Automatic annotation (TrEMBL):
Organism name: Phocaeicola massiliensis B84634 = Timone 84634 = DSM 17679 = JCM 13223
Record GO terms (molecular function): ATP binding; phosphorelay sensor kinase activity
The protein, known as: histidine kinase
Keywords: ATP-binding, Kinase, Membrane, Nucleotide-binding, Phosphoprotein, Transferase, Transmembrane, Transmembrane helix, Two-component regulatory system
Reaction catalysed by this enzyme: ATP + protein L-histidine = ADP + protein N-phospho-L-histidine
Length: 436
């Protein structure tokens, strides 16, 4: 208690003393027995009243200082508990005890807030929250990365950059979700909810990258289809080849028939070879991972393709930050990925003067590899199809190169996508989700 029983007794004594002194002075004045003395006594009662007010004001001043400190969120203030004034010491002890409780509660609240923030940073989904004025009060790093922001202050930044998000947020429903396209050909799932925290409403936007999920389902479907097709075609063609060989080997067979059988056999064998090439899509072995220098592996590919670069008058450059980057993966499979991409770039630069191919490796939280050429680019209407098995823009291609590359990267836990492609610049990106 701020005011002890002793303080109540002191105040009561002060009041009784003031009343007694003032009453005595009034009696002396009224009875004319001692007007001057009566006036002096009344003046003394005023001084006694002032002393009481001053004593009470000391408590009020201390309480005001305490509440001002709380309002300013300052918990470091300490009151003197050994001033010689019994009542003030008791009040100081009580205020200091409350101060300690508030400091403990504040510390616990900060720890809990830090825990929840760390938890939000660890979840794979992006979370953005804003108040009724549109000011962002929370945006975890996943959300900023998915949407390509370094910092978000107001929700209007989202609406200006992404019309699809603006349209989604303008829908008049309490809970809603949708799928939109975003940076790097990703597909994002959005979910919106509202939280009532008096006196305002907080809007929560959850963002999830579902590109890998959709791509995995699509790849699985293609793999199943490829297995069925290769099995059926091989089982059908193999007997035809065998029968054609047997019939053409008979001595009594007519020459024209023999030539026809040889044509059937040759075409059937080509079809079998063509079909066998697609088995790579459905029977890709798991990577045998070991730690190796990716920078060195790329330098080796540069040496391997040096004659191709010189023949096509292409300038090849490799940049690595840091200078030597090591990864954990299947060196043979990953080398095949980069070899395929480099050959694609060489073909894209065919007949171009001043052709350039660049590979840039950067490691900062994630490992990212950018493969860039200044070739003719990929038409916008075809960019969505380049990773689909059997689709090719080449007259002699079979359409398994980029699809196979994507499967290999996914088996390594990474992501492979076309960042941009226009006339004069095509950029493919390979990224690992975390530093190996």
């Amino acid at each position: 208690m701020f005011f002890s029983r002793h303080l109540y007794i002191v105040i009561l004594c002060y009041v009784l003393l003031i009343l007694g002194v003032a009453g005595t002075g009034l009696v002396l004045i009224v009875t004319h027995t001692g007007i001057i003395i009566g006036c002096l006594i009344i003046i003394i009662s005023f001084f006694i009243t002032g002393a009481l007010v001053k004593r009470l004001n000391k408590s009020n001043a201390k309480l005001k200082l305490f509440f001002d400190a709380i309002e300013d969120k300052e918990n470091m203030i300490q009151f003197n508990e050994y001033s010689g004034d019994r009542e003030m010491n008791a009040l100081s002890r009580s205020l200091n005890r409350i101060n300690e409780l508030l400091a403990t509660a504040k510390s616990d609240s900060q720890k809990q807030e830090k825990f929840y923030y760390s938890l939000l940073e660890e979840i794979p989904s992006g979370i953005i929250a804003w108040n009724s004025e549109g000011k962002i009060i929370l945006a975890n790093s996943t959300a900023l990365s998915l949407l390509g922001f370094e910092q978000l202050v107001f929700v209007r930044q989202l609406k200006q950059l992404y019309p699809e998000i603006r349209d989604f947020l303008q829908q008049n429903t309490v809970q809603k979700s949708t799928v939109i396209h975003s940076i790097g050909k990703r597909q994002l799932s959005l979910s919106l909810n509202y939280m009532k925290l008096e006196p305002e409403t907080i809007t929560l936007l959850a963002i999830k990258d579902i590109s890998n999920e959709l791509s995995e389902k699509e790849s699985e479907s293609w793999s199943k289809l490829t297995r069925v097709l290769t099995h059926e075609i091989m089982n059908t063609i193999a007997p035809i080849v065998s029968l054609a060989q047997t019939l053409s080997a008979r001595p009594q067979t007519d020459e024209k028939v023999t030539r026809g059988l040889n044509v059937i056999r040759e075409q059937s064998e080509r079809l079998m070879e063509f079909t066998a090439s697609y088995r790579h899509l459905s029977y890709l072995p798991d990577p045998i991972k070991k730690t190796f220098s990716l920078t060195t592996a790329l330098h080796n590919l540069e040496i391997l393709l040096q004659s191709d670069f010189e023949t096509a008058h292409i300038r090849f450059t490799l940049h690595s930050i840091p200078n030597d980057i090591t990864v954990e993966g299947d060196e043979k499979q990953l080398s095949q990925v980069f070899l395929n991409l480099l050959k694609n770039s060489i073909q894209a630069l065919e007949g171009k003067i001043g052709g350039k191919i660049e590979i840039n490796l950067t490691r900062c939280e994630k490992l990212r590899i950018y493969i860039t050429d200044n070739g003719k680019g990929i038409p916008p209407e075809l960019q969505e199809k380049i990773f689909v098995p059997f689709f090719t823009t080449k007259t002699e291609g079979m359409g398994i190169g980029l699809s196979l590359c994507q499967q290999i990267i996914k088996k390594h836990g990474g992501n492979f996508y076309l960042q941009e492609s226009q006339k004069g610049k095509t950029v493919f990106v390979i990224e690992w989700p975390e530093t190996p």
